[in-house]
Every structure is written in structure tokens, then in C-alpha cells.
Known about the structure:
This protein has helices spanning about 5-15, 20-35, 40-60, 60-75, 140-155, and strands at about 80-85, 90-95, 95-105, 115, 130-135. By secondary structure, it is α+β, with helices and mostly antiparallel strands.
Amino acid sequence: MTKTEQTADRSAAYDGFTDEERGAMKERARELKASARRGSRAEKAAQDEAAVIAKIAEMEEGDRGLAERIHALVKENAPELAPKLWYGMPAYARDGKVVCFFQDAKKFKSRYATLGFSDQAHLDEGVLWPTTYALKELTARGETAIAELVRRAAG
């Protein structure tokens, strides 16, 4: 086996972080540094929401429309959740802890966007319940389901 083939073989077997995952971790580090430098609680909240809106504006058209609607649904149905960036994704937190988040399809080269809920969400149902939902489009029925999930998650 040539040296080039050995390097290619090791690369194929590498089980570490992808470029997208490393990028998300770097974004999270920047978010934490920026948060530590901000002023009052009200200023932080305004800056966090502005950062979420700016991140949504950067998304590709289809994901942007989904993210804008999710943002509106969260604000309408769980106004107590505070918008913030989390690993470069729009997220919504209670007492600083992320309850739910939106991940655009492009972020990790997926074929669909996702709406996810952390362990801080009050969605427990028995011994098994979903925590992440695939989104390709939003219908009225889907928006109703998301509104209910967000209300429950916010507790």
C-alpha cells in the first residue's frame, strides 16, 4: 500500500468531528465570549434576539421561511422563552438553558431542517417520546402541532 493509499484509508476510518461540527463548536465559543462581554440583562436579551434574526436572514430561502415561522410560533406560544444562538442555530431558552432549537438543513448538509427539544423541555410521555422533528415545509396542521409542542415544552 502506498503512502497516499494509507493516508486515504486512515481518513476514511476517521470517526472524529466533521467540518460542520467543528464549525458549530467554534460558533458556540464565539457566542459564549460575546455573551460574557454584554451589558444589562435587557441589552443581552435584545442583542440575542437580533443575533437570532440575523442568523435566520442568512439562511437559504426554504429554511429561512421555516425558521421565520418557527420563531413567530415560539414567540406567540411561549413568550417566556428567550431567543438566543446556540451552536450557531436559533434557539429558545428558559433561565439561560435551551429548551428548543431550529437547525437549518444546510448546517449539517441534511435533506431537511429540524426542530429539536432539549432535556429542559417538558415533553416527557411515559418511557419514550420524540425530541427532534424533521421539517420540509409547514402546513396549518404542522403549525398547530408545533404550537402545542412549544407550549408544552415551555411548561
